[in-house]
């Protein structure tokens, strides 16, 4: 399928070449195990997940010594990421006319505004009427960028013309607009200044509370940049403390050999990865499919 091919091509490097070398030498020596461990760590799978994955592979090989280790590793990776989690956005069918808020959070530069635009595009394609709210009021450029996305995707954008306006008031106005338009989804872009944890907590906590007061968000999506590795994981923990994060969007998986961060992120946070960013274009967002992803990683 073309999406799988695209994913394979875009998860730059993947683990394919290293694994092929390791698994082509017959029975695994200690050196091979070491190399496998190093390969997983370099892909940002994280130390504890790597230990578990290697233990899982060893157990399978003990039970079935003639089995194909690559197939077994595939199964262990799929199991570790967890194919049973619900990864869909928790939205009602389009046309109900009772808008549902989705709040998108994350640090500046991770691809948050781009992701909001891409999600809007995806939801519009599914038949949802969408309103965007530019609640990142600290940078006028952020609202301009969102407006560009709104025009591209064909959805209204609510913003403040005043830099430094209260983000919560923009969210309120967005809610008003969504209500009067009979929209299905209010997509709220937020500020991502992580200058200090307390400041972020205050701002983001307040915004989420305000949006929640108007209407409980169906999703709080945390956007993480796959290329920032364990640092991104530390950011994710901070956000998870402030907001009830319901899903992760992992961006910039194209052109990184660090795709293993998916395993680490989900395991550490206990929140499902729901969407992945595979490029800068409007259509470069895909639902996260565990098997496809693992095949891309191993490909
Ligand atoms: P924000 O500050 O978090 O809102 O980040 P932006 O949406 O402005 O994105 C920062 C940069 O990352 C821009 O140049 C985007 O085009 C780029 N970007 C966003 N998502 C992706 C992705 O999935 N892949 C790639 N390669 N670039 C991305």
From TrEMBL:
It is a peripheral membrane protein. GTP binds at residues 106-113, 189-193, 251-254. It comes from the Bacteria. It catalyses: GTP + H2O = GDP + phosphate + H(+). Residues 272-285 form the SRP54-type proteins GTP-binding domain. Its EC number is 3.6.5.4. It is an enzyme of class 3 (hydrolase). Keywords: Cell membrane, Cytoplasm, GTP-binding, Hydrolase, Membrane, Nucleotide-binding, Receptor, Transmembrane, Transmembrane helix. Involved in targeting and insertion of nascent membrane proteins into the cytoplasmic membrane. Acts as a receptor for the complex formed by the signal recognition particle (SRP) and the ribosome-nascent chain (RNC). This is Signal recognition particle receptor FtsY. It comes from Demequina muriae. The chain holds residues 72 to 370 of 371 of the full protein.
């Amino acid at each position: 399928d073309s999406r799988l091919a695209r994913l394979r091509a875009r998860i730059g490097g993947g683990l394919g070449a290293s694994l092929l070398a390791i698994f082509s030498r017959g029975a695994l020596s200690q050196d091979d195990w070491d190399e496998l461990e190093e390969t997983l760590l370099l892909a940002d799978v994280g130390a504890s997940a790597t230990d578990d994955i290697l233990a899982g592979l060893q157990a399978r090989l003990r039970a079935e010594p003639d089995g194909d280790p690559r197939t077994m590793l595939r199964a262990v990776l799929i199991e570790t990421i967890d194919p049973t989690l619900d990864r869909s956005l928790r939205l009602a069918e389009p046309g109900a006319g009772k808008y549902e808020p989705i709040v998108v959070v994350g640090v500046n530069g991770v691809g948050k505004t781009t992701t909001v635009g891409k999600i809007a595009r995806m939801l519009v394609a599914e038949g949802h009427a969408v309103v965007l709210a530019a609640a990142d009021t600290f940078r006028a450029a952020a609202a301009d960028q969102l407006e560009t996305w709104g025009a591209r995707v064909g959805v209204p954008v609510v913003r403040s013309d005043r830099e430094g306006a209260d983000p919560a008031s923009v969210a309120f106005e967005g809610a008003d607009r969504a209500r009067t338009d009979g929209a299905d989804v209010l997509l709220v872009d937020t500020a991502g200044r992580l200058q200090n944890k307390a400041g972020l907590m205050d701002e983001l906590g307040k915004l989420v509370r305000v949006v929640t007061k108007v209407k409980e968000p169906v999703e709080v999506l945390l956007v993480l940049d796959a290329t920032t590795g364990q640092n991104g994981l530390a950011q994710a923990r901070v956000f998870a403390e402030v907001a009830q994060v319901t899903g992760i969007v992992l961006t910039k998986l194209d052109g990184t050999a660090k795709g293993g961060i998916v395993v680490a992120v989900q395991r550490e946070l206990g929140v499902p990865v729901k969407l992945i960013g595979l490029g800068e274009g409007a259509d470069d967002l895909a639902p996260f499919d565990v098997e496809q992803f693992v095949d891309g990683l191993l490909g």
